[in-house]
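hey can u check if this looks right to u? its 142 residues, i copy pasted from the old doc so theres a chance i mangled smth
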Amino acid sequence: MSGKSNHFYIEKNYVDFFNRSEILNSPRTEGIVKRENFLLLAAYGFSIGYKTPFDNPKNQGNDTFVMNQLTDEELALLYAIAISDTGELDVVNDDIKVADIAMEYANTGILELKKLEEHSGKGNRIKTFQAELLDFIEDFDN
């Protein structure tokens, strides 16, 4: 995407879903800031294994947060994703590239979460999502 910024965006086409998703906005996730939902989506997209570029680099939706708002743990997650994606340790010195990689994985996370919510029965969506994440973690640990 090369947004030339260390700001994190949600694809404009996905902003409505991001704001109304049953999983991202359930009573269980009440109080979780958009930043944490974004990180969850980036990790989910990474676990799926592919990135979804922005349809149009100018099609950025809501500016959700900037790099300096991340905790050390959150930065470590995004750095790990970027290192794994590029195979290069020095990617951590390029906040713009790290942000771009994270946004493309978050786009994948949003698309897949949207499909999951559309094809799961109401009430089962969170359980299905949790099961998918637990399967990934178990596979990753082995």
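The chain has one domain: 7-141.
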